[in-house]
Design brief:
Elements: E1 3-4, H1 5-11, E2 16-18, E3 23-24, E4 26-28, E5 37-40, H2 47-52, E6 57-59, E7 73-75, H3 80-91, E8 106-107, E9 112-113, E10 118-119, E11 124-125, E12 130-131, E13 136-137, E14 142-143, E15 148-149, E16 154-155, E17 160-161, E18 166-167, E19 172-173, E20 178-181, E21 186-187, H4 193-200, E22 213-214, E23 221-223, E24 228-229, E25 234-236, E26 243-245, E27 250-251, E28 256-257, E29 262-263, E30 268-269, E31 274-275, E32 280-281, E33 286-287, E34 292-293, E35 298-299, E36 304-305, E37 310-311, E38 320-322, E39 327-328, H5 329-362
Parallel strand pairs: 4-5, 5-6, 6-7, 8-11, 9-12, 10-13, 11-14, 12-15, 13-16, 14-17, 15-18, 16-19, 17-20, 18-23, 19-24, 20-25, 23-26, 24-27, 25-28, 26-29, 27-30, 28-31, 29-32, 30-33, 31-34, 32-35, 33-36, 34-37, 36-38
Antiparallel strand pairs: 1-3, 2-7, 21-22, 38-39
Length: 363
């Protein structure tokens, strides 16, 4: 990285305060910054740390007095954290995979690679696969038979894309992502105890143990544009129709999206979330860490589920949920406060009982 502050500001479509010709070779937290670093101080609580470092320029909060902080130059966006998105993209050196086709890569002769595709060491691209222009296939990654990757897709190391999976433009898949494994679909010859439990909410009836027969996954996975998929996340094939993930949805590490799930656009799905089979999720939803969604339910648009919520039934648009089972957050917090009051209430009831019994005895 080597830019002037003016070049950085222009790339971010922002203005420079001070000397635009200050040269920047790296980004740093304020207290650790050297003279060639751009210090990242997004709010006033970092003001003292700027003085502890040696930065000449900084990314600051909107109304910061950069001269009073002893700086030669500053960039002051209205939303510093949003500016950080473009700034880190500008500074990202990549993973050093090189360019072109590595000699150890295995590419089926029927595969179609567009212009400027990079295929790193040990990667495998299967029959009739199609890889869009400018894409990067990282080391030891796999693109299966008939799979399609849109332009500028970026698969990190050890990513697996199964047969017939279709992925849109600018997809990013982190190490170990597995897209297109078979769904977890099994059935018994007669009605099982599990089915009885679901219908009765607890009673297995006269069901006896039976072996499980496998249902093959004939559907694939369809992923939209600008989707990101985290490390060791698994997205399963559909049974007949594809599992779908909409445009611009961002998926964290260790997430499981089961067969036949349909996820809309612009969702944020955090670490260790599990979405069970045939569930439908709308747009602009946020699922915090360890949220679990039951199967065959529908989640509306703009739903937020707090950490570790377990969703057992459908949710309407715009709801904010928490708990197990998940209820509206206000109701959950009210119930939690009431539970915390129980010891005091019980103590008061005990004291009242003693007082009543004492009066009764004296009478």
């Amino acid at each position: 990285m080597r830019y002037t502050v003016g070049e950085i500001a222009a790339a971010l479509q922002l203005e420079v305060a001070g000397d635009a010709d200050v040269v920047i070779t790296g980004l740093s937290e304020p207290g650790d910054a050297g003279p060639d670093d751009l210090a990242l101080a997004s709010n006033p609580k970092y003001a003292d740390a700027i003085g502890a470092g040696a930065a000449q320029a900084a990314l600051l909060w909107a109304d910061a007095d950069w001269q009073a902080l002893g700086l030669k130059a500053a960039i002051r966006p209205a939303r510093p954290r949003f500016a950080l998105s473009g700034l880190t993209a500008l500074a990202d050196p990549g993973q050093g995979f090189g360019t072109g086709i590595h000699p150890s890569a295995i590419i089926d002769p029927t595969a179609a690679l567009a212009d400027d595709v990079t295929v790193a060491a040990g990667a495998v691209i299967g029959p009739n696969a199609r890889v869009g222009a400018g894409s990067i296939i990282g080391p030891l990654s796999f693109v299966g038979w008939g799979a399609e990757l849109g332009p500028q897709s970026y698969l990190r190391e050890h990513v697996s894309i199964g047969a017939k999976v279709r992925i849109g433009a600018r997809c990013i898949a982190q190490p170990g992502a597995r897209i297109g494994g078979d769904g977890f679909s099994f059935v018994t010859p007669e009605k099982s105890g599990v089915e009885e439990v679901r219908e009765s909410l607890g009673d297995q009836g006269a069901a006896t143990g039976q072996p499980w027969a496998r249902i093959a996954s004939l559907g694939a996975v369809v992923i939209g544009d600008d989707v990101e998929i985290g490390t060791n996340t698994a997205i399963d094939n559909g049974t007949i129709r594809p599992t779908r993930v909409g445009d611009r949805t961002k998926i964290d590490n260790l997430v499981h999206i089961a067969h036949n799930v349909v996820i809309g656009s612009d969702n944020l799905i955090c670490g260790q979330v599990g979405i069970a089979g045939s569930t439908t999720v709308g747009n602009f939803c946020v699922f915090a860490g360890q949220v679990g969604l039951s199967d065959n339910i529908t989640i509306g648009d703009r739903v937020v589920c707090g950490a570790a919520s377990k969703v057992l039934s459908s949710i309407r648009d715009g709801k904010v949920m928490l708990g197990y089972p998940a209820v509206e957050m206000k109701a959950h917090l009210s119930a939690f406060k009431n539970v915390r009051r129980l010891p005091r209430i019980l103590a008061d009831v005990t004291a009242l009982k003693k007082a009543v019994f004492k009066e009764s005895s004296s009478d």
